Amino acid sequence: MDTLKKIITKYIGGKIENIGFNEDWTITIEMFPEVNIHLTYSYFGDEFGDGITAEFKCYFSGERATIVPGEDSITYVDIIFDFIERIIEHKEPFEKSYDKKTDLMKKVLDQRLEPFTLLDDKDQKKIAAFLGAKVWNTGNGWRIKKEVFPGIFIELTYDNKEKLNIGYTGETLSKKVGSYHMEFLGIFLINHILRYITLNNLDKELPDICYIMFSRYFTKMKNWKHNLM
Q: Which residues of the chain have pLDDT under 70?
């Protein structure tokens, strides 16, 4: 258990606790402020004779947990499990093409560009709190830097030439998280930025891509049926 606690606190940036579901222990991680993920572990032996001796369950909490779609949060959980497994087995990531953008990332940066034009000076502090990130108004655009794991950062830049770019930094980046997973974490960050922009500009006509960033539950609750895919 001491080894697990060290991994979760030092490398993942989470904590080990008990959330009251009769579990043995729970890993709690903040994906974004008010978007928390709880991975509970319960050991019960081969109680039913089916060879299953333990299980993990995933729970979510926080005021904004319902706005994040399951595709984002569950993929994030998969990245966490992969990270933990590699640390335990002392394995480095396989993919290390941090300076190259896949076709998927190129498409994401292009599709999600337009809503960034709606950000203005008053958003700086609010979006920083929403993302759990540092945000700078550079005079000709925006710079957003988020620590996704201790010492590992995603940096997003947007300029007034309407160009969106993304990069990854950290002294131990290549030993901890592969470029494939960092790209997904970058997409999750961009998606959450669009959620902020949407929630703070509901009086405007927004691109459909803004509404697609939300969970089906939230879009139905808001009656955004015309934007459901």
A: 46-51, 225-229
